[in-house]
UniProtKB/TrEMBL annotation:
Its main location: cytoplasm. This is Kinesin-like protein. It comes from Rehmannia glutinosa (Chinese foxglove). The lineage of its organism: Eukaryota, Viridiplantae, Streptophyta, Embryophyta, Tracheophyta. Pfam families: Kinesin (PF00225). Belongs to the TRAFAC class myosin-kinesin ATPase superfamily. Kinesin family. KIN-5/BimC subfamily. Responsible for microtubule translocation. May be important for the organization of phragmoplast-specific arrays of microtubules. Plays an essential role in stabilizing the mitotic spindle. Required during mitotic cytokinesis. Residues 933-955 are annotated as: Disordered. It is found in: Cytoplasm, Cytoskeleton, Spindle. ATP binds at residues 95-102. Keywords: ATP-binding, Coiled coil, Cytoplasm, Cytoskeleton, Microtubule, Motor protein, Nucleotide-binding. Residues 9-316 form the Kinesin motor domain. Residues 933-942 have a biased composition (Basic and acidic residues). Gene3D superfamilies: Kinesin motor domain.
Length: 955
């Protein structure tokens, strides 16, 4: 497998800063020590009185004494070279606040003066050095190049362009929103910051030669402090800031975990930082993390956390690729495209007629917009329906109002008619009263006449008695009193005069009576006519009234029915609306429930995931601890084995030494034997060969043998010494080994204790995490339950409300119905009452009118009778008086006895005149004085039905 396929691990460097002045002043103990050669960082800890060291190995380690230049040359130069080769590279600093991230990345150029010949000051950090290297290299290559720089700040999840023109950066705080730059997918799996200022730093003169263009990118990132948010002093106002920073760093941690553990889903999208660094973490960029720590004890916890974090990040594998080299023409084409796009953007920005948003958000917003449009359409339809309904109701209401107005105008007209009729009735009643008054007046006059007639009759009878007495006296004196003839003649003439006078009077009376009677008859006729006309008018008015009342009743009924229909419609409408509301509420509640259920499922998944992760972590930690222990045990065993094998080896060595000793002895023996054999052979040969030569040879051999013997002995002595030395060394080694073994064993035990303690601690932490997750789950379930309860409560409240409303509608309907029935009944009753009343009134009037007519007729008859009787009586009186006078005065014979002259008591003319009835006007005057018209009531006006006696007895 090639490197490209396998991937390259993220390079992790560790830099520990020197003690700060404060820390030095406070004599802060050192807990971090760096071994740059071994690339190790060890952290000393004292846990429960035990001293424990933790060691981390990184790709490179820079201790407190490491200079900026050292770090740059050892770690960054190769990276910048790779950038110049066409790779994309990222260097980011990670660590607690105040541990030197900015110092490492930027350095302290401002404080320090630059060196000669454009040399950077020794305090200059990675960024200025990298920039210088890039330009130096490009210049030295004498190549055509172009360098662009972008400088952005990611703060509170908001990206700000630090290269934006100054006037823009000076805008008010509220305008800052506009300046925030959106992060967008570039469509090639990467991200770009839309609208980020690109500064072209410098460009060498153009050389038309090479057609291929290399392109490399270097990202230099200075992260925020990695410490706990609670300790960063983030309170209240800064909570969001802390939260957002924390979110970025937490997401970065999660991304690293996901990459290290090869999880399927890497949550790059959860923060802008991870979106920006996406290609640097598990992508095609070469990445170098510079972890910075403090040596002081008070930062221990954060230091350990940073070390753990950085150590984990070591396992991230990136697959760096050289950026595609492109043809100049293609690049120019691309650049033209880019220019066009930028032009469009500038135009849109200038005209403010364009908006740029991420694709996902666009699609999301598009779908939201569609859903909202549908909803709005539906709502529009509902509103339209409601509007129509309202319009219908309004039209009905208007019609009802119109009908009501019509009815009220009709009612007014009827009222007016009724008033007129009432007036007419009152007038007619007045006229009737007047008539009745006149009748009474006439009755009174007639009774007065009767009284006068009676008085006259009485006077006439008195007169007759006196006359009879006088006639008797005169008859007795007739004879004697001749002289009284003259007187008698006078008497007769007086009587004749009286008779004539009486006749004249009676004639006048008769004439008066006849006139009065005819006047009365005329009057009565007039009354009758009036009564008839009144009756007709009244009947007509009553009929009309009756019709009007019936019509008004029918109208009322129809009106009530219409109202009831409206009410029914309204009720149906409101019931439908209420049903709709209820359905809507329940659907809302259902949708909330569904949403919650969906959310719950998702949350449960998340929690399950979390729990699984935690339990897998727990299992892994346990496994790790077990493995660690096993490894400890294995290494202990291995050590034991090694020591035993070393023992065996040493013993073998001893044995070998001993064997060497015995071998030397054997050699010695063999040598001795060999010498003896040689001597023997020599002696045998010496007997046969030249003696001198043999003697010489013998001497030589002897000497040689002596030498050999000496050397063998020396060898043996040396070997013995060597064996004893080896023996000493071995036993020494054995002892030392024993010591070392004991020491290692105790170390292992310590380590095992430490790891057990850590294991316990981790288990505790994991348990806490699990508990937290459980609590969160419970909390979530409780929230869900309460939300569900709330939803159903809400729905039931709405339903009960709807029920109450519909019940009240029903009640209202029933009430309206009963009211309608009651009104209808009352109206019918009152109409009938009116009709009955009018009928009764008409009946009464008819009766009274007929009674009037009867009375008038009787009256007229009586008057006629009176007139007839009167004329008969008058004739009779006249006749009787004439007969009586003629008889008395012609048949008178003297008796011879002259009675005593007596003066007849003849009423005087004045007396007789006083008996005359008063003139009509005087009688009317008297009647009116005694009976005022105002106090006059119809009941008293019943005319006397007893016919008055005619003036029959006057004479
Ligand atoms: N290696 C170093 N050698 C000398 N001084 C250092 C070193 N590292 C850091 N310092 C000093 O420590 C102080 C804090 O460093 P710096 O501001 O770079 O920390 P930081 O991690 O960037 O903090 P923050 O997260 O708040 O930005 C500075 O005064 C800096 O000069």
């Amino acid at each position: 497998m090639s490197v490209k396929e396998k991937g390259v691990n993220v390079q992790v460097l560790l830099r520990c800063r020197p003690f700060s002045d404060d820390e030095l002043r406070n004599n802060a103990p050192q807990v971090v020590s760096c071994n740059e050669y071994q690339r190790e960082v060890s952290v000393s800890q004292n846990i429960a009185g035990k001293h424990i060291d933790r060691v981390f190995v990184f790709d490179k380690v820079f201790g407190p004494n490491a200079q900026q230049k050292d770090l740059y040359e050892q770690a960054v130069v190769p990276i910048v070279n790779e950038v110049l080769e066409g790779f994309n590279c990222t260097i980011f600093a990670y660590g607690q606040t105040g541990t030197g991230k900015t110092y490492t990345m930027e350095g302290e150029c401002k404080r320090s003066k630059g060196g000669l010949n454009g040399e950077l000051p020794p305090e200059a950090g990675v960024i200025p050095r990298a920039v210088k290297q890039i330009f130096d290299t490009l210049e030295s290559q004498n190549a055509e190049y172009s360098v662009k720089v972008t400088f952005l700040e990611l703060y509170n999840e908001e990206i700000t362009d630090l290269l934006a023109p100054e006037d823009l950066s000076r805008v008010a705080q509220e305008d800052k929103q506009k300046k925030q730059l959106p992060l967008m997918e570039d469509g090639k799996g990467g991200v770009l910051v839309r609208g980020l200022e690109e500064e072209i730093v410098t460009s060498a003169t153009t050389h038309e030669g090479e057609e291929l263009i290399k392109c490399g990118k270097l990202n230099l990132v200075d992260l925020a402090g990695s410490e706990n948010i609670s300790r960063s002093g983030a309170r209240e106002g800064r909570a969001r800031e802390a939260g957002e920073i924390n979110k970025s760093l937490l997401t970065l941690g999660r991304v690293i975990s996901a990459l290290v553990e090869h999880l399927g889903h890497v949550p790059y999208r959860d923060s802008k930082l991870t979106r920006l660094l996406r290609d640097s973490l598990g992508g095609r960029t070469k990445t170098c993390i510079i972890a910075t720590v403090s040596p002081a004890v008070h930062c221990l916890e954060e230091t350990l956390s940073t070390l753990d974090y950085a150590h984990r990040a070591k396992h991230i594998k990136n697959k760096p690729e050289v950026n595609q080299k492109m043809m100049k023409s293609t690049l120019i084409k691309d650049l033209y495209g880019e220019i066009e796009r930028l032009k469009a953007e500038v135009y849109a920005a200038r005209e403010k007629n364009g908006v740029y948003i991420p694709k996902e958000r666009y699609y999301q917003e598009e779908s939201d917009r569609k859903a909202m449009a549908d909803q709005i359409e539906q709502m529009g339809l509902t509103i339209e329906n409601h509007q129509k309904h309202i319009e219908e109701l309004q039209a009905k209401y208007d019609r009802q109002v119109e009908q009501c107005t019509d009815l009220s105008s009709k009612l007014d007209a009827t009222q007016k008619d009724l008033n007129q009729t009432s007036k007419l009735l009152a007038n007619t009643e007045d006229e009737l009263k007047q008539c009745q008054y006149s009748l009474k007046e006439r009755d009174f006059i007639i009774s007065e006449q009767k009284k006068a007639e009676n008085a006259l009759a009485h006077q006439a009878s008195v007169l007759r008695a006196d006359l009879e007495k006088s006639q008797k006296d005169n008859a007795s004196l007739f004879l004697k009193i001749a002289r009284e003839d003259k007187l008698n003649t006078d008497n007769r003439s007086t009587v004749n005069c009286f008779q004539a006078d009486l006749t004249r009077q009676l004639d006048a009376l008769s004439k008066l009576l006849a006139g009065s009677t005819s006047q009365q008859s005329e009057h009565l006729k007039c009354v009758e006519k009036l009564c008839n006309s009144f009756f007709n008018v009244h009947e007509k008015a009553a009929d009309e009234l009756k019709n009007k009342v019936s019509a008004s009743r029918a109208l009322c009924v129809s009106h009530f029915e219409a109202v009831q229909n409206v009410v029914r419609l309204h009720k149906a409408g409101s019931n439908a609306a209420l049903d709709e509301l209820s359905a809507l509420a329940s659907s809302h509640s259902d949708s909330i429930g569904e949403l919650l259920a969906a959310e719950a499922v998702e949350m449960n998944l998340v929690f399950d995931d979390l729990q699984k992760t935690l339990s897998s972590h727990q299992g892994e930690v346990t496994h790790l601890a077990r493995e660690l222990r096993q490894r400890f045990n294995a290494s202990t065993e291995h050590l034991m084995d090694t020591s035993e094998s070393l023992h065996g080896f040493l013993e073998k060595l001893l044995e070998e030494s001993k064997r060497l000793g015995s071998h030397a002895t054997q050699v010695d023996e063999v040598q001795t034997k060999c010498i003896a054999d040689f001597q023997k052979v020599y002696e045998e040969q010496s007997r046969s060969d030249s003696e001198k030569l043999i003697a010489d040879m013998t001497t030589l051999v002897d000497a040689r043998l002596g030498d050999l013997k000496d050397s063998v002995i020396g060898n043996k002595i040396f070997l013995d010494g060597h064996i004893s030395t080896v023996d000493g060394i071995t036993s020494d080694l054995k002892r030392k080994w024993q010591d070392c073994f004991t020491q290692t064993e105790s170390n292992f035990k310590d380590n095992a204790d430490f790891s057990a303690a850590k294991h316990c601690r981790m288990e505790l932490l994991l348990q806490k995490c699990v508990n937290t997750a459980d609590t969160a789950l419970e909390q979530w379930q409780r929230t869900q339950q309460s939300l569900n309860d709330m939803g159903s409560q809400h729905a039931s409240t709405i339903a009960s409300h709807v029920r109450t409303m519909s019940e009240s509608n029903e009640r209202h309907d029933v009430e309206i119905e009963s009211a309608r029935l009651m009104v209808e009944r009352d109206t019918a009753k009152s109409g009938e009452d009116i009709i009955h009343f009018i009928d009764g009134l008409s009946e009464k009037e008819r009766a009274s009118v007929s009674e009037i007519l009867t009375t008038a007729r009787a009256h007229s008859e009586t008057i006629e009778n009176l007139q007839r009787d009167h004329s008969e009586q008058a004739t009779c009186i006249e006749q009787h008086a004439t007969d009586t006078f003629r008889q008395k005065y012609m048949d008178y014979e003297p008796t011879g006895s002259t009675p005593i002259r007596s003066e007849p008591d003849i009423p005087s003319k004045g007396t007789i005149e006083s008996l005359r009835a008063m003139p009509m006007e005087a009688l009317q005057e008297e009647f009116r004085e005694n009976h005022s018209y105002e106090s006059f009531t119809g009941k008293e006006l019943r005319p006397s039905v007893t016919p008055r006696a005619p003036l029959s007895q006057i004479n």
